[in-house]
Specification:
Length: 97
């Protein structure tokens, strides 16, 4: 879950907007509506499609952050290897900002 949270933060940075606003674009979160669990599951697929498959994150964040995002918000039930996280973290640390 920590990796998924990091992915959500990277998406917030890419969009330059809070995650709650990103979610509201895709899911009705008004008080009178019960948010269904399968809608939340579709949110992850939607974020993967927009930010990874369509390349929005690569354009806005750069290659190193995109590599980390791919690991944090995987497609389906795919679980990345810890070595991949270490490699992505080294790439992010090497970035000069």
């Amino acid at each position: 879950m920590d990796a998924y949270s990091l992915g959500c933060i990277l998406i917030e940075i890419a969009e330059w907007t809070p995650l709650r606003k990103i979610i509201k674009k895709r899911i009705d979160t008004s008080i009178s509506v019960d948010v269904k669990l399968n809608n939340l599951a579709l949110l992850s697929q939607s974020m993967h499609g927009r930010y990874i498959t369509e390349g929005v994150a690569a354009f806005r964040l750069g290659a190193a952050s995109m590599k980390m995002l791919v690991l944090c918000i995987p497609a389906g039930d795919k679980m990345p290897d810890l070595a991949d996280f270490n490699s992505a973290l080294e790439d992010m640390a090497a970035c000069d900002i």
